[in-house]
């Protein structure tokens, strides 16, 4: 039998609207079409059909839509259907027979066939009830029990992606978590579902979804208006236990506002020191030591670009505007596979995206600094600009002091940041960040020191397909310092140093299926180092100019990672990087005699390399392996192992980090550092995630780490390899952390037991330290306790406390004297054999908020804080002087008395 719809007809589709086309189709075929007009709005028919059947025409024009059709032959009617299909026969086996529906290559038993989609109208009281949505287009040849749903979660106010959003299927145990770009992918049963979303600061939502086939759904979600109790550090409740990566922490910049710190300054890096495994050599010391590693072993990123010195004024203040900083993710163990180049940790600092709805801002006025940040919408719901600036007015304070020795002192700094963010659509966005900071200081000295950071970065995030997202980043960083020396003699000079790096990285993420998510890509970096130059200042200076040869190098990596969900309990994160590094010319390199100590008298040859010529190449594979096993839904055990290469080093013979420490690239004579770390941890949440408990143990080994020879001269040394040693290090420890995230009383308690030991055992006595035995590092502090407490007295008044205790750091003491050739000489102990007194400090603060009226020009709060309430004269260092033939020990302290402060904060 030949049906009427199979009779060939000719119909023209060009230059016709959809209604005109359907009218001609009805006239030529004799069939009446039934549909809703808004279903076909936007449908374009741009070709003619010659001798085509009605079904061929409909199949063609509806192939790229969510519309199906049903033909009622007897009445010559055609019904267009949105997403679904109509069954006019009961499936085989409906009455109990064990027949099956055969659909292409897939066989679906009748009892497992997707059910019809029915839904009832309901009202949600506590969540946003979003409109029902139909996903996919039903296909008789591809009926399945479940379909894939993917998309992106976006903050409806700011346009920013929403990471760590929990998406659940109501009534089922299935759940997905959005990644850092807000992307998600999950499997939903065929037919009717209700999905719910929840995240901190985002209003909970419910949405009815009917799954007809695979498809995508972007979630535009509003911010929560609920007044929450303040929380100091709050990791995502799900990721804390369920993610595979070990030893990671996230700190929101907003969370630092109630923690009492020196001079009332918000400092996200200082807050990090209160977490287990992170410390510094002393109060006011620049740089962080993570799990027994040196300060140069931390990769600090600001919007994907390296920032070499993220502090002001010897580490007392951070060089990051707290009002433009969103958060910092800290990785102390096996970091995500995209990061590399450092042995100990990654500090991934993110800047806020601006408000795309209205102009807003935030600022503060404190005893030493002023701070302001603005968020400016450029195109509503599309693009915005963040502008932040802060500066210190310590110069005015120094000049006002009644101390003649300080009248000519100078101590000032400033930093500024600009960030542009534009969202083209749900699948593509771009951001650009520019940052600059500058420090100048001269305290009762004839030398003016200055150092600065400059960086910029551009990041393009885009969606290549339903399963693949890409991020392309480019950045440049520059750090330099200088010394401007003036004295009464003829030896005035100017000294300069600079390091510059440029990086290009492309990262892709592909969700293969429910079990495998791949991260892969490549990165390339170019280093340029000016090791220093000195020039006479003025015509009368007798200083001879010195200009050390520039250093250059290339660094690159390929990386691949797989998050493998073995089962609901077992999750693996497997990754590999291959690192490549090559020192480059134009340069000269010394070779030294074999069987002799390395010094200027044993130089065997000097080799010259042309511009762009490779001097020495290093590299090798790196592993990132982590595993998580869920013992219960809120209790997990994790383990990880990683190894890393580091090709850039700091050269310093100071006890703590100095702004004039220099960075040195690996070359013919200085090998890259290598590190290996294993971690085991247990993680438990209590009382609906109110409490978080973690216990981690780690062991780290380091090879070819750098230290200096006794009396080393490192600055402006053309043969600096003769002044340094390379040896091995080991670090191990146990870290405990208990956090309370909710309630009027919240905060955390952390305790770390750790050891950090190094050994330098060369072939010759001058290449050994402590006879080639392990000795404690400068920052070896076995016991470290921190307690952070916030107590909300009322809605407007809160109390905060910060307590810290640390074992005194190691020091080398003189243990005797001897006389030779009528001169007295001091005999020192083994390096770092003794310790300075233990360190402890208590800080208190009161936070007073303004009234909570909604319609105000600006909302404000005042913080009253006292740093070092107990007036503990904690030693920063102990040094020795000879007076009247006697050796005397003296102690220096940074803050030996209580330091009160008051800061006014405002937000509009």
TrEMBL record:
List cellular component terms (GO).
cell outer membrane
Gene3D superfamilies xrefs: Carboxypeptidase-like, regulatory domain, TonB-dependent receptor, beta-barrel domain, TonB-dependent receptor, plug domain
- Its domain of life reads Bacteria
Pfam family, any one: Plug
The molecular function terms of the Gene Ontology recorded here are: siderophore uptake transmembrane transporter activity
Q: Which UniProt keywords apply?
A: Cell outer membrane, Membrane, Receptor, Signal, TonB box, Transmembrane, Transmembrane beta strand, Transport
Note the InterPro entries from the entry.
Beta-barrel_TonB, Beta-barrel_TonB_sf, CarboxyPept-like_regulatory, Plug_dom, Plug_dom_sf, TonB-dep_rcpt-like
What are the residue boundaries of the TonB-dependent receptor-like beta-barrel domain, all occurrences included?
419-869
Alphabetized PROSITE patterns for the sequence: TONB_DEPENDENT_REC_3
Could you tell me where this protein is found in the cell?
Cell outer membrane
Q: How does it sit in the membrane?
A: Multi-pass membrane protein
Tell me if Membrane is a UniProt keyword of this record: yes
Q: Does the keyword Cell division apply?
A: no
**SUPFAM superfamilies annotated for this entry?**
Carboxypeptidase regulatory domain-like (SSF49464), Porins (SSF56935)
Where the record annotates domain TonB-dependent receptor plug, the positions are 264-342
Q: Its Gene Ontology biological processes?
A: siderophore transmembrane transport
Q: Which family does the entry's similarity section mention?
A: Belongs to the TonB-dependent receptor family.
What is the protein name stated in its UniProt record?
TonB-dependent receptor
Taxonomic placement: Bacteria, Pseudomonadati, Bacteroidota, Flavobacteriia, Flavobacteriales
């Amino acid at each position: 039998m030949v049906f009427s719809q199979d009779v060939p007809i000719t119909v023209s589709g060009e230059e016709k609207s959809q209604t005109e086309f359907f009218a001609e189709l009805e006239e030529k075929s004799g069939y009446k079409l039934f549909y809703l007009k808004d279903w076909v709005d936007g449908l374009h028919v741009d070709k003619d059909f010659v001798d085509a059947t009605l079904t061929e025409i409909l199949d063609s024009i509806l192939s790229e839509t969510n519309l199906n059709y049903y033909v009622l032959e007897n009445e010559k009617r055609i019904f267009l259907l949105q997403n679904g299909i109509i069954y006019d026969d009961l499936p085989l086996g409906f009455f109990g027979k064990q027949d099956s529906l055969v659909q292409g290559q897939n066989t679906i038993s009748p009892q497992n066939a997707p059910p019809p989609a029915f839904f009832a109208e309901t009202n949600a009281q506590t969540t946003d009830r979003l409109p029902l949505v139909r996903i996919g287009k039903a296909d008789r040849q591809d009926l399945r029990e479940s379909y894939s749903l993917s998309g992106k979660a976006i903050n409806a106010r700011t346009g920013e992606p929403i990471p760590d959003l929990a998406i659940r299927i109501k009534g089922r145990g299935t759940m997905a978590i959005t990644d850092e770009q807000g992307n998600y992918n999950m499997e939903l049963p065929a037919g009717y579902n209700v999905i719910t979303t929840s995240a901190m600061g985002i209003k909970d939502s419910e949405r009815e979804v009917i799954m007809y086939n695979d498809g995508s759904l972007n979630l535009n979600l509003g911010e929560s208006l609920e007044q929450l109790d303040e929380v100091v550090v709050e990791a995502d409740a799900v990721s804390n236990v369920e993610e595979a990566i070990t030893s990671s922490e996230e700190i929101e910049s907003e969370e630092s506002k109630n923690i009492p710190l020196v001079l009332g300054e918000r400092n996200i890096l200082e807050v990090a020191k209160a977490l287990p495994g992170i410390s510094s050599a002393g109060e006011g010391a620049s740089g962080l030591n993570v799990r027994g590693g040196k300060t140069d072993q931390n990769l600090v990123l600001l919007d994907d670009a390296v920032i070499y010195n993220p502090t002001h004024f010897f580490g007392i203040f951070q060089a990051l505007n707290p009002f433009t900083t969103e958060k910092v993710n800290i990785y102390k163990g096996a970091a995500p596979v995209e990061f590399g180049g450092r042995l100990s940790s990654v500090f991934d600092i993110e800047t806020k995206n601006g408000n795309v709805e209205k102009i807003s801002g935030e600022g503060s006025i404190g005893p030493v600094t002023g701070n302001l940040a603005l968020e400016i919408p450029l195109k509503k719901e599309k693009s915005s600009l963040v502008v932040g600036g802060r500066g210190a007015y310590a110069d005015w304070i120094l000049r006002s002091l009644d101390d003649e020795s300080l009248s000519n002192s100078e101590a000032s700094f400033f930093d500024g940041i600009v960030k542009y963010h534009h969202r083209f659509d749900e699948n593509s966005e771009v951001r650009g960040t520019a940052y600059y900071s500058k420090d100048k200081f001269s305290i009762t000295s004839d030398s003016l020191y200055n150092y600065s950071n400059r960086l910029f970065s551009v990041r393009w995030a885009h969606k290549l397909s339903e399963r693949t997202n890409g991020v392309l980043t480019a950045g440049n960083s520059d750090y330099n310092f200088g010394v401007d020396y003036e004295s009464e003699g003829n030896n005035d000079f100017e000294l300069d140093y600079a390091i510059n790096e440029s990086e290009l990285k492309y990262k892709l993420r592909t969700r293969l299926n429910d079990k495998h998510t791949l991260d892969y890509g490549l990165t390339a970096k170019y280093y340029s180092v000016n090791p220093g130059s000195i020039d006479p200042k003025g015509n009368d200076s007798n200083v001879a100019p010195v200009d050390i040869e520039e250093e250059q190098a290339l660094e690159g990596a390929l990386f691949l990672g797989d998050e493998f969900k073995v089962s609901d309990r077992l999750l693996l994160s497997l990754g590999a990087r291959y690192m490549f590094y090559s020192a480059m010319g134009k340069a000269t390199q010394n070779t030294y005699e074999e069987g002799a100590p390395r010094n200027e008298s044993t130089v065997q040859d000097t080799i010259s390399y042309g511009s762009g010529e490779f001097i020495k190449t290093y590299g090798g594979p790196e592993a990132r392996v982590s595993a998580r096993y869920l013992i219960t839904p809120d209790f997990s055990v994790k383990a990880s192992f990683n190894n890393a290469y580091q090709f850039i080093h700091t050269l310093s013979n100071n006890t703590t980090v100095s702004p004039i420490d220099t960075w040195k690239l690996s070359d013919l004579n200085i090998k890259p550092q290598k590190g290996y770390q294993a971690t085991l941890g247990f993680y438990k949440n209590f009382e609906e995630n109110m409490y978080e408990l973690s216990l981690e143990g780690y062991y780290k080994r380091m090879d070819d780490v750098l230290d200096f020879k006794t009396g080393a001269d490192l600055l402006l040394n053309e043969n600096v390899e003769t002044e340094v040693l390379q040896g091995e290090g080991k670090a191990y420890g146990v870290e405990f952390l208990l956090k309370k995230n909710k309630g009027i009383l919240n905060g955390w308690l952390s305790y770390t037991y750790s050891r950090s030991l190094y050994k330098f055992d060369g072939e010759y006595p001058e290449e050994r330290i402590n006879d080639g035995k392990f000795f404690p590092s400068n920052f070896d502090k076995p016991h470290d306790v921190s307690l952070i407490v916030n107590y909300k007295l009322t809605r407007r008044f809160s109390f905060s406390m910060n307590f810290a205790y640390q074992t005194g750091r190691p020091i080398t003491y003189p243990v005797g004297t001897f006389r030779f050739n009528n001169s007295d000489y001091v005999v020192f102990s083994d390096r770092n054999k003794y310790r300075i007194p233990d360190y402890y400090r208590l800080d208190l603060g009161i936070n007073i908020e303004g009234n909570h009226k909604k319609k105000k020009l600006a909302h404000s709060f005042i913080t009253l804080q006292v740093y070092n309430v107990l007036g503990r004269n904690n030693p920063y260092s102990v040094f020795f002087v000879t007076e009247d033939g006697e050796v005397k020990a003296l102690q220096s302290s940074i803050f030996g008395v209580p330091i009160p402060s008051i800061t006014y904060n405002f937000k509009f």
